[in-house]
Protein: histidine kinase
Organism: Rhodanobacter terrae
Amino acid sequence: MNPFKSSIYWRLLIWFCVANLLVLFLGSFLTQRFIEYTTAVEINWTALARDANQSYESGGAPALGNWIVQQRHEGIDATLYEKGQALSPVWLPPSVRQSLPAWFDAGRNVLLQPRPGLYVSMQQVVGSDGQVRYLVALSRTHTRLRPQTRAKILLGVQLTLSLLFIGLVGWWVARSVARPVEALRGATRRMAAGELSARVGRQGGMANDELAQLARDFDAMAERIEALVAHDRGVLQDLSHELRSPLARLHLILDLAQRSRDAAEADAYFHQAELEIVRLDRMTGEMLALSRLEGSIPGMSRENLDLAELVRGCVERAELEAQARHVQLRLTSPGAPVVVFGSAPLLERALDNLIGNAIKFSAERGEVDVLVRAAQGYTGVSIRDRGPGVPEAELESLFRPFFRGSNAVRADGHGLGLAIVQRVVKIHGGALRAANRDGGGLDVDLRLPLAPGDAVAMPSV
């Protein structure tokens, strides 16, 4: 995974950048205030003026220049003025330079702060020769501190603030990361202990990052596992319930066979036992198929299929059963291929169940119509019979496993065929609907999406 696409990476980067900027600006501010208000060594401007005058009188301009260099190392720019002229050049702000004549004429000491972080002082001093001179000095601080000392104080403050802010940011980030991780660990432990309803949920303050996505994926996985386990338990319960009656009949038939008086009588009982075994085998196979489909594990590959051709094959296979029951099968389909993307064995099984169900519930010499149609984006297959239909109150339960309505006495079955059909249609992204026909009979409508590239308008039938 590219770390630059990780929201956790960007969150860490942004917060550490914010911490460093806070350290930079707040450190400078606090250092300045610390120097201004907590350093006890204030500049004695009067003594500084006497010192400058003494240096000048002892060695002239060269000695004064050396003195100026020494003061500059201590953060003060200063020089002496005599008769309005600087005895040694020094840089002064234009506003200060313009104000000097007025200050000289006033003949009094001046201490100003023209802007924050800048002090200007003018001090009058009388030399041993009686000459009046003026010290003009600038300083970034009101205290006498060497630049090296100020740098050390700034470094110390910034180091302290860096440790403080990085510690706070690190604690906050670690807490925000540890909370969803701990929630995931707790949910995993509960699931391992058998609590399948365990979920991580959305923790308070959880960001929408990879950890939150992992928590959502875990919840989706846990929900899927719980549903599969619940379904398997339900299938096992249903199967155990449904097997009791045929097993009881099989036990009774074998008991009667053992008590038979001759081989012919026993042979009849064994034939009935064989039929019960076939029923048990078919029921178990249908239950396993339904379980596999409910688990969304069809175990079969998918491909583009011509649904019209598939339905035609199912109708041809059902002709023998229809003729045996004197039922007429009619197929209506468009001339052009109707292409869907799916599993041929699964769709054939669903169609066989629907057509076979319609034949079973049709009256003798009845009719079953199978219609294939295509429209914008989907295709439909309708299987219509003229049987007894289904009571309106039972229509919603028609596709439920083991449901056998009030008309089930007309045909043999276990109530699993339509449940299998519904699951096959669902995993193909389609829909299944049943409705009673006017005049009697049932209309089961199966809809499937057309394969990509084939979702075009086609004439309906």
